[in-house]
Specification:
Four copies of one chain form a homotetramer. Chain A contains 14 helices and 14 strands. The first copy, chain A, is an alpha/beta fold. The longest helix of chain A is centred in the C-terminal third of the chain and has 22 residues. Chains in contact: A-B, A-C, A-D, B-C, B-D, C-D.
Chain lengths: ~350, ~350, ~350, ~350
């Protein structure tokens, strides 16, 4: 079975696994208060050119989104997100469970703009309404698109103007950096807080939250504990991030994933396949006739994105650290066969 | 430095680490919907003689307590716990954060009794009060004591009588089973739900929640996701539990930990040391003059439990899977020297 | 100033005020456990032909929506509402504050249909999504439209089919009953719970919640107290509802309000005025050129509903128990003058 | 039946009722944004010598406690209260429902001290614990005792020292001011926020929240709406507070209530009756043999406070604005007869 279902189905990249094995017998204080976590945090601060940032390590993405947004907002405040945003639909109402409304904004390409943000804040001017306070973006987005540095800066300017916080869910930040023109320092400069996703970039698990805005830093570890988001053997997160941030491995993994996905996209386009949206990252969203999708399901693993009119279906192909050129070539051969049957 | 700080400072037991490495390249569906988790769940159901139980895997203990209690209770319902209970003090108000009061009951030895539970329910009879609904116990308790099977059965009878749920936090369930007379089936027979702790028993991380009561089972996975408690590469939990539940390793690790701690306790008693409480498990709570404690801190790692009158301090020694007889002998030698200086 | 701003700006209808004064010196048990509340509840049960319904009295509408929805839902469950629904926008995220997502569904005329409900439930089929569980409708709706009995029955059938609860916010139930073909028994037959609004129908304050579904009745008073929704001098609610439910006063007030508003609508249509939507109740939504609105603001009190293209604005006129034919005639004269200037 | 059950069983003081009737036909903007509320707020600011305070009007006491504490605290922060405090037991976990732990501190006379507060904050120093942030006191307390101005100042100093907020639940503030040596300005000087209770001091309903600390003022009305705590016909609260604050009526009512209760206490003491605690306010807590209590229940209305050893019971007598000297004399006669039977 050709595997393009997602980027979190294999275990850890060998370098990460090796680090875990090498340090397995170490004895360290728990809960992330250990030298490995401190070293990894320091590396992230250096990469981001953000020496005063607070860096916290989480096991998962919903966990970090929920904890950060819950900690940053006051009870009457709401988050703004693209309606495709992960927090809108696919986290079982985790943000609402902590008391905050999420305003769903239209965003055909998965990206918010200063105009949509401004319209949402202007529409919430009454005391009988929630107060929009935090802009949630994902980069890469849920449809594989990528914010450019100019777009991030424009969002930052709009947030400054409107008194909003900018939070970036970087579950696939590696892919976004590798595919875009904003590096770690760009995120640190534009966002009040953002995550550096590890789970989908070669770790067994792990998301690093970088809190740049000093006003959001105090007591954050209490919030983490309250949310059940502190890992007892916390150093496991530090060890993994140290390993993946060494020798540029983090971005190498991401760049390779992007390249394989884009190579697949090029091959599909050559076969006349259309796409939901142009996505330069490791997620692509081709559209096939339903009967081709049915055939594909027998030979490849992938997700259905959306049923479309005229018996067509948009599906998602994702590459992971374990994907190979052979996988891509194999999939293209299958698609070609199915399209010409 | 002699290490008796806790049982979650080393990495994984070698057998567990080997299993993780062996399966690292596998490609499985995420979120715990994979053959490894299903197999581990099936093993737990078999060990518990609870074929209809739902088994869910979590990364951490606060996470599972918070998710389970939040899912089981209605808004007006409260949890009852010994005032030493982990949810009372050391989870940063995680249960309250989800809207539920925790009633702290006195329990000098860390154990609730039918009488204390009954008194608490009788004291909450008005519509202007919360309704006690869930009894939270820990086994082993936070002071190392262990509920016997008879005690568990008495709690079950009281809960039946009072319309209460019985939930057991088994972060150290291995130690409790190894030190006590209740086995897995005893917990399944007495509790509506309980956890099988892995983090403190040889895993990198992992707590298995066993929901015996069918009324508490529906939609539980939605709750887990809402709480950010679903691990993307969920099979890591299944793989680890499979490894530790094989060949009785889970209880072997626990029995060995208990034995080392009890051997330490015997040695300390022989030196005339008193204890906070009699604890037959892998946590012991000796009392020393403050100046001995100061000396110990230079040669051993441990936690302070409580300052006591007359310049004495109760401290905690914990053994883990990595502890050795040499560690115990070394510590006894240090204590002997310090006491006789 | 001609007053058409809303239906909660005058005090109580004289009959209600008289009852409050007459009973002022009575001494009764607090919190709604008094003969006046019991008598009013019994009257409501009788009017609704729902002898087993639980009836609870609240001071305000947001309070009752929040308390009921919070009590009826489990943590993973969501409410479904028309995007114009009061709980969606104008209650400052009250439902989300208690942990529940509100799904906003499109509804141009303010009304949900079986099809929109069905589509929403079908779109939420994953464990990573909230579970739609309660359908929130308002009758009259926020744009003055009214569900017919056939529409209510169709919603009930859809809810039965989909396993959903049907909750009707009857802040203006009097107006809906007077304008529509469903009486109190129709609401009791179709809804799991609904409110009988008093604040906008002649009371100083007061909403009666009728819980028809017995599964939703237990411990509801604990929830009310927890939400701060129990009035100390609770009999004030019973006294007022007794007064307004006597001799059909409740529906007389509503019918008169509707008649005045419809008389105004007829007059405006005769002047060529268009409307946002056809609304047969005491709220109407005419559209005027902006300069007419500016002129109106100097002579009448009303709310702006929505800015429209081409320099037009939709505004809202509402009649209350204190409105008079002279008010209507006066407003028509002003509009006529402004339109012809 | 002699009525000493509570101080919220009669309707409104005649002067308050007259004001409601006089203004009944007025037409004002809703939600407390009206001249009556503004005038009442201004009067309170003047009485408190706190020209910058924000004043908000609520219908009930649990509602204001819940809304204020929920608005003032961040998720990881907790309230500190005497274990007798109203928020600890008698509000069905309303504060916890909004996510905050309430730390119950021992206080035999219902009063917190700097020492108990300090001990509680010192005991919560870990990241795994909630952060005590708000001190909740009631004046008069739930056992009728009264904080002196010196005690309030000492609490203020401790709060300043420890970084805590001081919140006073003044459900019976009138009685506390009339019985103590702190006036309105004393509360404004010592508290970050406090309430001026109306429900138990002659109003149909109404609690005024005075937020002195400017950091706690922004967006408070959004919070009120979110909690369902905004009264549609908001001016009813302004009208009532205006009436009761005129000509010193507020304190006259309270002083008269205190005087009647103290006259009753003197009479009971003369009959040899003991008390739970010395309380100089309108609530007194005599202790009787159970058989006397049984006799009393046939002739008087009151609450049971607590069962005591040796077949004795502590009960509560409360005077209200409607109580009379005849009531007191009548009750003393009954008690005398019962004690001598």
């Amino acid at each position: 079975m050709l595997f393009f279902r997602n980027d979190y189905s294999a275990g850890a990249h060998p370098a990460v696994l090796e680090a875990l094995c090498r340090t397995n017998a170490d004895l360290t204080t728990g809960y992330g208060l250990d030298p490995r976590c401190e070293a990894a945090a320091e590396t992230i601060r250096r990469l981001c050119a953000a020496p005063e940032a607070a860096v916290h390590f989480f096991v998962g993405g919903t966990q970090v989104n929920k904890t950060a947004i819950g900690a940053f907002l006051r009870p009457w405040e709401a988050a703004i997100a693209a309606s495709t945003g992960h927090i809108c639909v696919h986290e079982t109402g985790a943000v609402e469970q902590d008391g905050h409304k999420v305003l769903h904004l239209p965003a055909p390409d998965g990206k918010l703009t200063p105009d949509t943000i401004r319209a949402a804040t202007e529409a919430h001017s009454s005391e009988h309404m929630v107060v929009p306070r935090l802009v949630y973006i994902s980069n890469t987005t849920e449809v594989g698109t990528v914010y450019s540095l100019a777009e991030l800066r424009a969002l930052r300017a709009a947030c400054d103007d409107l008194g909003l916080l900018l939070y970036c869910d970087g579950a696939r930040l590696g892919s976004a950096i590798a595919a875009g023109d904003a590096g770690f320092p760009g995120y640190a400069a534009c966002c009040d807080a953002f995550t550096v996703g590890g789970t989908k970039n070669g770790l067994l698990f792990g998301e690093a939250l970088v809190i740049v805005n000093p006003a959001l830093q105090p007591y954050f570890r209490n919030c983490m504990k309250q949310q059940g988001a502190v890992l007892a053997k916390g150093r496991l997160l530090g060890v993994q991030f140290e390993a993946v941030l060494k020798d540029n491995l983090y971005l190498s993994i991401a760049a390779r994933e992007n390249k394989l996905a884009q190579s697949l996209a090029v091959g599909l386009r050559a076969l006349g396949v259309a796409f939901l949206v142009e996505s330069p990252s490791n997620q692509i969203f081709p559209i096939f006739p339903d009967k081709v999708v049915a055939g594909l399901e027998r030979e490849a693993a992938f997700e259905i994105q959306e049923k479309l009119p005229e018996d067509r279906t948009c599906i998602r192909f994702v590459t992971g650290w374990q994907s190979t050129e052979e996988d891509v070539e194999g999939l293209l051969a299958v698609v070609k066969r199915l399209l010409t049957q």
